[in-house]
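User: My instructor asked us to take a sequence, write out its structure as tokens, and then describe one feature of it. I'm not sure where to start. Here is the sequence I was given:
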Amino acid sequence: MCGPAPCHNPVNCIIPPHMLRVMALRGDTSVQKMAKSMLKQNESVREERAEHTSGGMVPNAGRQGAFVTSALAFMDTRTHTCDRQIYDGDNRASLPGTPVRTEGQDPTGDPEVDRAYDGAGVVFDLCSQEFNRNSLDGNGIPLKATVHHRSKYNNAFWNGEQMAYGDGDGEIFQTFTELSVIGHEMFHGVVQFSGGLIYQGQSGALNESIADVFGTMTVQRHLDQDVYGADWLVGKGILGPNINGVALRSMKAPGTAYSDSLIGQDPQPFHMDVYVDTTSDNGGVHINSGIPNHAFYLYCMYVGGKSWEKPGQIWYRALQQINNPMATFGDWAAETLDAAIDIHGTGSWEYLMLRRAWRLVGIAV
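Assistant: Let's start with the prediction itself. The structure tokens for your sequence are:
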């Protein structure tokens, strides 16, 4: 939890608290202890993060960043230089740890180190080559990541400054250096440096959804998949071998990613008619994100092609211009439609199909 006030830049963890709470109820003694410990760790780290953040929008992106982005639009992407810094946490809680691989160095042979390094490069290339964005902040911030964070840690997170990946316990969760997880968590940084969306209620669910959108986009571009050939899963392959599920979330079919006696049933809705009103998980930010996720998926099905082309350009432009940290789903839908008009024109097919996609998830704009 973030504490009593909504968070602008909380620690963004890939494993949602509702899943941990189910494990704390259903698991054996060791699983209950792990889940309760992680819930406490997440709360503690978020409180620490809140203490050294400004609580306001980050000066560089967002609507203010719309002017920055306009200027960057004329920048040659060859001036964008990737600076990856990977650390070994040695199964301890302190960050960042011991430097083990920096930009340009050869693979280490440690799969976690090398996946974190390669994944950060894939995200950097997506930002630079498709959106003309120089790293996560637009100004070339180094891409720092720690692997082997804590012992058998079942999570990964962006803490406002860097990534951290646990190794998983090998039973409930496996490696967290999976590409959609890397993309998801690093794009929380892009959201942060684009003005931010308060991590509460619908704005928090949008924060999670945008990270999911660009996380899946990261995978699809890396594999050169069109929208019809993609699986639209977030966290594919990180569930343990005996867990009944395929991923943490499905943008194609929210609510179907997993159904297991230990971790529970995927609670994500796909339509506003089944929006979940809850006080947990900062107002259901990991749950209700399924609605805007599904709208993006539907739009991609209408326009075809590659997700980072027409749909991705619209979502990215909307993110730079939203200028509303407390945006609702309706606010975000309207902003994406404005971006579609900016790029494709009033009354264009791209605009009309996007409006249809939003209406299909119960958001009339």
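For the description part of your assignment, you could build on this observation: The radius of gyration is 19 Å. Try explaining in your own words what that tells you about the chain.
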